[in-house]
Amino acid sequence: MTRPRGQIVKLPNGKWQIRIGYTENGQRRYYKRSGFDTKEAATFELSKQLVTLGKGRSIDASRQTVEMFLISWYDIYSKSGKISAAQLRSVQTNIRAYLVPRIGQVPLRKLKAQTIAALLADLLAGGRIHAHYQGASPQLSPKTVRNIGATLSRALTDATKWGLIPSNPFENVDLPRKTRTELTTWNGQQIAHFIATAYRQRDPMRALWLLALTVGLRRGELLGLRWSDIDLDAGVIHIEQTRQSVGAKIVTKPPKTRAGHRTCSLDTQTVGALAMLKRDQEAAADKLGYWYSDLVATDLDGRPVHPKALLKRFKAATRAAGLPVIRLHDARHTYAAYALENGVSPHIVAARLGHSSASFTLDTYAKSIPAADKGASEIVESALTAQLRALLGREKGANLDEMTEIGEPDEQTNRANTRKKDHANEKIVGEGGLEPPASWSQTRHATNCATPRADSLYRTNVSSACETRDDVEQSRDVVV
After folding, report:
1. Strand-pair category, 16-24 with 27-36
2. Which of 264, 336, 350, 381 has the smallest set of CB atoms within 10 Å of its CB?
3. What is the pLDDT of residue 4?
C-alpha cells in the first residue's frame, strides 16, 4: 500500500468533503466522504482515515456492512478446503437465514458485543424459520444457536486478522449453555420385536436395520458401505466411506476422523441377513443383465438408495412393527445404550461407534452406565463367591451347607428375587406396550431359529421373538 494522499474540498452546498487516493493490492482506489459542516470536522475525519491506512488496514471497511463482509468471507472460506461440503452448507444457511436478516445492515466496524448478544437472545426466543407452518416451537435450540454463533465468531476472527476491524467483538459474548438432549432409544424387547417384524414382512432393508442396531452405523456409513468392504466368511465389515446429501447433490467421502475408519465384527444374525441381501441382488442383476454399483444399500433395480428415502423406509418399518417412532440415528443410540447396559466395555463400544475417545461415549450415554456397573459388581461377586466356596470347602470340617451367608441365597431370598423379577417384567411390558414373549424354555424347544454367536448382544431376545411355526420356517433362511 503506497503512501496515501488526502484533500479537503468545499462543495457548492456549503458542506465539506474529504478525498483520499491510495493503492491497495496493486489497484488504485479512491475514498470520498461528504456531509461535514465545518472544515475542522472534515480535517479530523481525514486524519483518522489516514491513520487507519497507515496501520495497514482498509478504510473501505468503515463503509462495509456485515452482509457485504460475510458474503466476501464465505467466498474465500468455501475455497479454503478446510471444511466438508455438509459443514459448508450449514455455514451458508447460518449466514443467509439467520445472520444477514438480523444484523446484515450493521456497519462491520460498528458491530458491538451488545448487538451480538441481542442477536443470540432473539434466536433463542424465536429464531425458527417457518415455525407456524411446521407446527413447531418458534424457539431455536441452544445447540443450533451455538452453531450460528460459531459461524459469526469465525468470520469476525478472520476480519480481525485481515485488519478490517481492530478486535473481535464476539470475544466478549457468552454463547448459550450446552444442554444435554434426552436420547430416545428402544429397550431389548423392542429391538427384538422390530427385528422379528422385519423378518416376518421380509423387509428388503432388514440387513441395514441390523447393522444400525447391532453395530451402530450412521446413516451415511450405511449408505456408503460396499460389498468389497464386507467379509462374510470372517464376519467383519470395514467402514471406509460415507454417502450423504448436501443440498441437491449426493457426496461420497471418507470418514471425518481416524477413528471413523474402523473394522467391526458382526453377529451371525447380521451376517445371514447380509448374505441373503447379496443373494437377492445377484439374482436381480442376472435378470437385468447389469448392476449400477457395489453399494450394499440399493434397490432391486441396482440404484443406490437416496439418504432421505432411507429415513422414510426406517420410519415405515418402525410403524409397521407398532413401536414408538424413533429416528434412524436413534437406532445407533439404541445400540450403544443397550451394549453398555449389558456390560460391554465402553472402550469397545466407542471403537465400534467410531468415537475418538471412550470419555465421549461415557458422557453421551451416562444413563446406561449404572446398569452396567451393577452387572459388573454381580460378576465380581459371583467370581469371589466361587473362590471363597472352593477355599472353605478344602478346609477340614468345612460344611458347604453353611455357605448361604457367603454365596448362594437361601430359599426365602430366592422367592423374593423371583417376585422382584416378575414385577420388573410386568413393568417393562407396561411401559413398552408390547406383549411379553413366550417363555424362553418353550421358545427354545418349539423353534429352530438360527442362533447368533455368543458375542451377539441380541441372541436371547432375537431368538425369543420367533414364536410361531411360520417364523421358524422364515428364520431358517437367515444364516447361510
Report:
1. antiparallel
2. 381
3. 63
Task: Please tell me the least confidently modeled range out of 17-26, 117-126, 187-196, 244-253.
Answer: 17-26
Give dist(CA 337, CA 349) in Å, integer. 9
- The predicted-structure confidence for 250-278, as pLDDT tens digits, reads as follows 889 899 889 999 999 999 999 999 999 99
Strands across the sheet containing 230-231: 230-231, 236-239, 262-265
- Percent share of the chain, pLDDT over 70: 74
Which of 231, 268, 58, 235 is CA-nearest to residue 159?
58
* Long-range contacts (CB closer than 8 Å, 24 or more residues apart) made by 50-56: 50/4, 50/6, 50/20, 53/1, 53/4, 53/20, 53/22, 54/4, 55/163, 56/1, 56/163
pTM of the predicted protein model:
0.62
b/e burial code for range 210-232 (CB count within 10 A of at least 16 → b): bbbbbbbbbbbbbbbbeeebbee
Cβ-based neighbours of 231, under 8 Å, separated by 6 or more: 237
- Residue 175 · residue 146 · CB < 8 Å: yes
* Cell representation of residue 339: 451394549
Phi, psi at residue 9, to the nearest 5°?
-125, 135
Please, which pLDDT band fits residue 372 given cuts at 50, 70 and 90?
low
Closest C-alpha among 128, 72, 66 to residue 97:
128
Given pLDDT bands bounded at 50, 70 and 90, which one contains residue 100? very high
33 strand-pairing partners: 18
Mean pLDDT of the chain: 79
The whole-angstrom separation of Cα 290 and Cα 285 is: 5
At 138, which helix (H) or strand (E)? none
User: Which is it for the CA torsion 82, 88, 91, 92, positive or negative?
Assistant: positive
Which residue type sits at 373?
A: D
Query: DSSP letters along 200-268, please?
Result: HTT-TTHHHHHHHHHT---HHHHHH-BGGGEETTTTEEEE--EEEEETTEEEEE--SSTTTSEEEE--H
